[in-house]
Design brief:
Elements: E1 9-14, E2 50-57, E3 60-67, H1 71-74, E4 79-85, H2 94-107, E5 110-113, H3 126-135, H4 139-154, E6 159-167, H5 169-179, E7 185-191, E8 208-214, H6 222-234, E9 239-244, H7 259-263, H8 270-288
Helix pairs in contact: 4-5
Length: 292
Amino acid sequence: MLARAPRHRLIQRAPSSSSSSSSSPMSAPPPAHASRRGSAPSSAASASAERWVEYDCDGTSLCALVVDAPQEAAIRGAVPAVLVAHTAIGVRDDFVLDAARRAAKELGAVAVACDLYGSRETVWDAEDRRRYMAELQDRNVLLKRMEAALELAMSQPGVDKAIAFGYCLGGKAVLDLARGARPEVLGVVSFHGILDAPALALKPMSASVLACHGSADPFIPEDQFQAFLRDMADRDADVQILTFLGAKHAFTRPEKTTQEDDDAGFQYAPKAATRSWDAMKRFFIDDVLAQD
């Protein structure tokens, strides 16, 4: 459990919209764009109300976007919360915010786009990213940040359970949340997340795991991947691994198309992006939530 319960404060309400998202149900989330300093989230349409909520984790002020479940889901009674964990550029990334909006709609859930940094802007500067990520090298700190977001999610009206997914850094974060063995977390999905074996308390994992992984991801060497498998086995985890042959890191990101990106190990793979999103939905709806 957290040493300190998070304090929640509504700081911005985004208007709801009656129009639907421009992304089709079979497409990947739209690309990320630079967010202006202090700007509102992207204008991707959603039928659900949303708001920015400030909360706390051991003295660090964090801020998450909370997207309400669609009315037709909420009217049926209790709904799940889905936590969405960001990449190294932070929670103000339009790609992550649009993924949270889409997940709320397609999963019938309250979506919480988690804040792992406490930044109030998109973190494009490499030095700033290193500073924020240095704090999270201690995986117990990363786990506490995810648990603080979980507390925020579970405090939303009508929420009785949680699932989570994340990209890159966020994939690592949701896997650590599963390692934390909180009973309200039923399942997590990692998209090109870091697959490793962190020095976290060894607990049997109650959450099921789906790891969507690119076989050509240079950030996951074979020995590290094997250590991940051993760690999952040691935790008696229920794990599925969906591997996309030839896919590199960040295969869900439509903006990763340049030669410079490719040379650095990043490359968008449209089929992998679409198939991994669809696999996530089937995993959550047909497997994790159906068994609850």
